[in-house]
Amino acid sequence: MLFECKLEHIQNKRIGRLSLQQPRVFKLNHANETLFPPQGLVFQRRFWLVGRRFLGSQVVSSPEQIQQPEVNADQIQAVDSPLCSWRRRIWLRRVVVGACGFILLAFAILWAVCEHLVAPVPVMVLSTQVDLPVSDLSLTTDLGATVKGWWIAGDDDAATVVLLHPLRGSRLTMLRRAQLLHGEGYSVVMIDLQGHGESSGDAITMGGLERHSAIAAVQYARMKSGNKPVVVLGTSLGGAAFLLSQQVEIEGLILESVYSTISEATHNRMALRMGSWSASMLSPFLLWQLESRLRLSRHDLRPIDELSKLSCPVLMMSGSEDKHTLPAEVRAMFKQLAPSAVNQRRHELWLVDQAGHVDLYDFAGEAYERRVLGFLSRITATWQADLH
Question: pTM for the whole thing?
Fold first, then answer.
């Protein structure tokens, strides 16, 4: 019995394909399961190589007459087959989808990191938590923000030291230093920077707005101390906040582990977690988020540019193994300092051996005390000499 069927599609093969010049209708001999064309149908066998390069064709009256042509080796070209092209398209599609997924994931992670960095850190601080004769104080910045803190009175002939805490800390973070200074007779002003502790603030701005808190604290210290010298001791964010203020005069400055620029600080911290190459690629996106959230430019957060404007002696300290603020960056900051115009003494640089980005007082102990107290005693001695 004969069955008539219609050929809907002939899939391209790697070496050749069959092309019909008349309607693609075949008759199937069910007895011997052979496929042959109706009478008068002409087969045309086109010969192709890989990459569909046409080599020739022949017209025959039956499939048995189709012969494979002889092809010279120089006619063969190394071109991808349709199957290879299909696989390549699939591979490229997977690469593009994977890259887009990685970028979206990176953006989501950076968004969460930025959200954590700028989130305020409110902490209830009570005077009953300390064993010092503290007096509560509440200051108002020039922007109308409220700054909470303590005043600790010292000897009449000693300097007043303003303590500015690090990122995500509070005045309690500086409590041990306050005990040391008060024991030596110094008066102390301790505050919570904006967005920290009990002070107001909706975000942490890496020194951009915290500088107003530092200004208010120094002005209060000046009011309480009269003509006595005022010294600022700022750790990390606290030191950066004071450098960015540059609106008040002081007699001495102690900086601990202060970042040089927000760009370098961001890169260094990201490099610790994902490597230098990834940090170089992704840190600009984190900086862009910080700028858009805080409405501050990265060019506004460069404490290193303010060092040359200082006219007071400076003690600069950092860890020799600090990966957040690299020793090379600390040396570059130190070189920006001009010779002191107050007492003609050179500024001091101390890289604490084997210390990372840690509390240098906790790490160095007595060596830290000798450095800080020695620096303060020289400032006090100079002030007393000027009085006479």
Answer: 0.74
